[in-house]
Amino acid sequence: MYHFIASILKGILTATGGIKVYNKEKLPKDGAYVVACTHTGYIDILWLGVSLLPRHIHYMAKKELFTNKLIGGFLTKLNAFPVDRNNPGPSVLKIPSRLLSKGEIVGIFPSGTRTNEQTALKQGAITIAQRSKVPVVPAVYIGPNTVKELLKFKKAKLIFGDPIFIASPDMDAKQARDHFTHELEKKLGLLRDEIK
Predict the structure, then answer these.
(1) In 3D, which of 132, 131, 129, 185 has the Cα closest to residue 161?
(2) Tell me: the pLDDT tens digits for 153-164?
(3) Parallel, antiparallel, or unpaired for β 156-160 and 57-62?
């Protein structure tokens, strides 16, 4: 189901302008990792998933999207799982940790919401990577954010950065989370400047 829908989406997105992907060779060839991408609309979610094919990505999604059974079922088939952003429970760590232990890719939008402004990053991506001992790959998307913008046929851009390994022998867990969250924020800013 995932691959079938992703292939259809790839055709539609390519027909409406396509995308230029930079530094895809920096992605780990196999094994688990967290990809932390900027989030400015709904199209970035689609392009990120399509750009990682043939590998699948598992997205954290706000639980409100799952209240409708039809939409929730569709999202589940696309490997999304619900998270309560206001009252995060054990599932915030448990589900992605289980996926990563199986060698999967987990996609997180660390700003926590759709925004065009640079916001202070939440620590979820770093916390999950730290817990699962996997790298975090920063990614920046610039391009159409809505269907209306897609129909202007402008090419999107997606750039990947070097994987960040959460190695911190001289820091405790909290210090490491703070440090690497700052590093991730800095790298996303540099990548954003690189493709503007």
Answers:
(1) 185
(2) 989 999 999 999
(3) unpaired
